[in-house]
Amino acid sequence: MSNITESHKRVELRGIGVSPGVATGLVFLMTTEEERFVERDIEENEVAREIARFEEALIATRRQLREIQQQVNAEIGKESANIFEAHLLVVDDRALVEEVIRGLSVHKKNVETVLRIVADRYAQALLRVEDDYLRERAADVRDVTRRILRNLSGVSSSGLANLATPCILVANDLAPSEAATMNKKNILAFVTDLGSPTSHTAIMARAMNVPAIVGLHDVSIRVSRGDPVLIDGSKGVLIIHPTEEDLESYGKLEASRKLIRTGFDLLREEAAETIDGYHVLLSANIELAEDVEKVIESGASGVGLFRSEYLFLSQKNHLPTEDEQVAAYERLARRLAPEHAVIRTLDLGGDKFLSQVKMPQEMNPFMGWRAIRFCLAQPDIFKTQLRAILRASHLGNVKIMYPMISSLDEVLKANLLLDECKDELRSQRIPFDEDIDVGIMIEVPSAALTVHLLAPHVDFFSLGTNDLVQYTLAVDRVNERIAYLYQPTHPAIVRLIQNTIDVGHRHGIWTGVCGEMGGNPLMVPLLIGLGVDELSVSASLVPMVKDMIRKLRYSQAEELANTVIALESADEITRHCRALVERVNPEILELLT
Ligand code: PEP
Ligand code: MG
């Protein structure tokens, strides 16, 4: 790398470090499909060739859409398959096709450019129409245009699944579905313009245990493919064309952090217990069933959150069948028994979308048709998953958890569907755990304020602080511009957590924390002091959190909680949390992002 570094200007950028560690390597720049198509002038004698390319791309697009439609029809049903009829209508829209062909001679540009101009005009015109149905067709025009453009360029996917050499991935943004399907072996680090610490891309980076920085605003246009970069995911620092001194000083820094982390390896078999004997159940969050091995290695007690939607996101063209789901859940159940495997039912929407299921374009997807709302409206998809979880439950300690509950009614409806699934399995003599625990995520303020109504109907609560913070403070969790307002120690959040835990205990049920707050050593003493029973954190963070717990006295945590509950601001509360960690475990501060 040194030869290249010397001939270029060094640039240092700062973003939000979301996954710790130092990495150096060459940039792989991920561009969106639109960006990848270059505008090119053409001569009149090239028009015929461009038309031929366009016709070929239309044929390929039509064929692909028919294939997907057939697959969806077989696996999900006719109604979902009909969605693709609208896409086929766009491909067959002669007015659009002819306008593109005419545009080639008018604009004297390559077909990619003309198609984008024409399709954009179509979509804009549709968006201006009063009629809801027609407005939604704008999204169809955009989807189909993207597919035709892909077929024109021969690019079959974002290329992330086929990364052949180790690289540092730089992108404007990265969808969870892209993160789920990329070739993880060759990703040394992630860097994105957008994003925040609780965006699912950041969560994926921690799960993969690779350094990551988000919220760098314009890094994707400041670097070029192949540029050498150094990133420190702990400090949120990215250096383009690093010098020899940078490489050396960050190398030393990382070596000293590694030394601290090596000490954690000795804790693998130790209990997650404070010095004065207060035991916390320390579990792991995972996105993919194969990551269960990382959970075992981390020394966690089971899985407190399996984000099952990644099983769906990692399949390109179909929804996982009941049997495919059973295989994944069984793998977890068997490998973790007798420890628990909490399988959260499908939490789609927000920033997680499936290409296999058409979901409406919404102004506020995080507050829209997502998670349990989507599942209750799609009982076939939901019941397939519930049956699969039940079928796996007799092999281990499986628990079911519903996401994004906002009212009792949703719990009752979900439980009713669960009862139907149990009846079906009983009549088919398929074994399952009759006493399977059912819990809910407390991540919407209305749920946190009515836990007394919800508790009688469930076996446990798990605080999803990532969403709880965003909904309570009205701060979009993936918007880096307002990341400074995203404060898990806001007095409102501390109170909601306290209420949930206290009410849970009064009803004899346990409460965990599975949001990212639980994996932050600064917050661990506060959560323990508030009485949390379980912390479920990214597997890569388990050793650090265990170290934090073991250096603490429960009495100190209790005192901290009693003090901060009377404080007036997030900053003050954070200061108290930090002061305690500085006293009992100063080394750990070196490792924080
Ligand atoms: C949460 O909201 O805190 C949570 C754990 O769920 P997710 O991050 O998947 O929304
Ligand atoms: Mg959530």
Give your account of this protein's structure.
The protein has three domains: 2-31 and 163-261, Glucose Oxidase, domain 1; 37-153, Enzyme I, Chain A, domain 2; 278-539 and 554-591, Phosphoenolpyruvate-binding domains (TIM Barrel), CATH 3.20.20.60. The protein is built from 25 helices and 16 strands. The longest helix has 29 residues, at 47-75. The two termini are 26 Å apart. The protein is α/β, with parallel strands linked by helices. The strands form two sheets. The chain has an eight-stranded mixed beta sheet with strand order 1-8-7-3-4-5-6-2. It has an eight-stranded parallel barrel with strand order 9-10-11-12-13-14-15-16, surrounded by five helices. The structure holds phosphoenolpyruvate (PEP) and magnesium ion (MG). The site of magnesium ion has 5 residues, from helix 20.
Highlighted features:
593 residues, alpha/beta, Glucose Oxidase, domain 1, Enzyme I, Chain A, domain 2, TIM Barrel, eight-stranded parallel barrel, 25 helices, disordered N terminus, binds phosphoenolpyruvate, binds magnesium ion
